[in-house]
Predict the structure.
Amino acid sequence: MRPDWDEYFLKLVKIIATRSTCLRRQVGALLAKDKRLIASGYNGAPSGMPHCLDIGCLREQLKIPSGERQELCRGLHAEMNAVIQAAIYGVSTKDSTLYCTNYPCVLCAKTLVQAGIKRVVFISDYPDKEAKAVFEQAKILVVQGKQ
C-alpha cells in the first residue's frame, strides 16, 4: 500500500535517526515543502567535534535527567541541524513542515517558529509543556503521525 506524504516522510526520519551519535536518544528530522524534502538532520556533535559515541555522554557523566538543562550537551538536536542545513545551502524554510521522530523541545520549538515552519509532524511524544505552549502561541499545527 502506498504511504501518504506524512507516512512517507516519517519513514524517512526513522532512517535519518540511524546516523545519530547520541548515546541517549536517536532523533531524526527533515523539512519538507511542496511534497519535497528540503533538508534533514539528526542529533549529534557539531561537525568536526568528537562524538559522544567516542568520548561518552556529558549529560550522563553529570547525571542530568532527560528534558532538563539541554544546554549541557555536546550535541545539536536533529531539528536544529535540519534548519542549519537549509541555511548553509540557501534553502528557504518558510512555510515548510518539520517531520521528526520525537516531539521537539522548547529550544527547537523556538527555532522552528523563527524559521517559519508552519506544521510539525512527530512520531513519539516528549514531555515538554513549554514547547507545546510555544507552538500554540505561534499557531503552528502539531500532529502525531501514524507509525
